[in-house]
Amino acid sequence: MHACEHNHDHAHGLKGSSLEGALDRAERRVEAAGERLTPIRRRALDLLLRAGGPVKAYDLMAGFGPGGEPAKPPTVYRALDFLMKRGLVHKIERLNAFMACGHAEGDEAHTAAFLVCDCCGDAREIEPPPSAAVEAAAKASGYALTGVTLEAHGLCPDCAAQ
Ligand SMILES: [Zn+2]
Ligand SMILES: [Zn+2]
Ligand SMILES: [Zn+2]
């Protein structure tokens, strides 16, 4: 993901008790919706939370198994689809990559908003601006929205400084 030569400190990944806490919260949210966080779904979320940034699907597949063995694409895509429906993972189209939701208490259908670095490919989830204007425009056009994702792109502080 870090294509450029710039100096980065990408230490947003979770580990230890914060990782366990995030997985437990995700499990409770999934169970509250009457679903299950199966081992495969949990593994996909675990890998994304540890990465702390955008990860391409083929990188997830590559080391998916508990011993680092690769997984088949449909297995991983099904898990990602499920996690996205529950609002636990977002897809960043510009990077064609997936990222764990950065909001511990985000609801399932929240508007996801990202700052994306065009140079190093890092991304950060921010508080979404009110999406009322988007919803009003959709209503006026007769669109039934199922989700809103905003992607603002430019340079991260590390890349902008160099
Ligand atoms: Zn989110
Ligand atoms: Zn950058
Ligand atoms: Zn850069």
Q: Residue-averaged pLDDT, rounded?
A: 90
In sequence order, what are the helices and strands, one letter per element? HHHHEEEEHEH
User: Which overall shape is indicated by the principal axes computed on the Cα atoms?
Assistant: globular
Quickly name the level 1 CATH class: Mainly Alpha
Give a count of the beta strands, DSSP E runs of length 2 or more: 5
Question: Explain this structure to me?
Answer:
It contains six helices and five strands. The strands form two sheets. Strands 4-3-5 form a three-stranded mixed sheet, with no helix packed on it. It has a two-stranded antiparallel sheet with strand order 1-2. Helix content is 38%, strand content 15%. The longest helix has 17 residues, at 16-32. It has helices at residues 16-32, 39-51, 57-62, 73-85, 132-140, 157-160, and strands at 89-92, 97-100, 112-117, 123-126, 149-154. It has a single domain (16-160), classed as Orthogonal Bundle (Arc Repressor Mutant, subunit A), CATH 1.10.10. Strand 1 (89-92) and strand 2 form a beta hairpin. It starts with 15 loop residues before the first helix and ends with a helix. Bound molecules: zinc ion (3 copies). One zinc ion binds next to loops.
Summary tags:
162 residues; alpha+beta; Arc Repressor Mutant, subunit A; two-stranded antiparallel ribbon; 38% helix
How do the helices and strands line up, and which of them pair or pack?
Blueprint: H1 16-32, H2 39-51, H3 57-62, H4 73-85, E1 89-92, E2 97-100, E3 112-117, E4 123-126, H5 132-140, E5 149-154, H6 157-160
Parallel strand pairs: 3-5
Antiparallel strand pairs: 1-2, 3-4
Helix pairs in contact: 1-2, 2-4
The structure holds zinc ion (ZN) (3 copies).
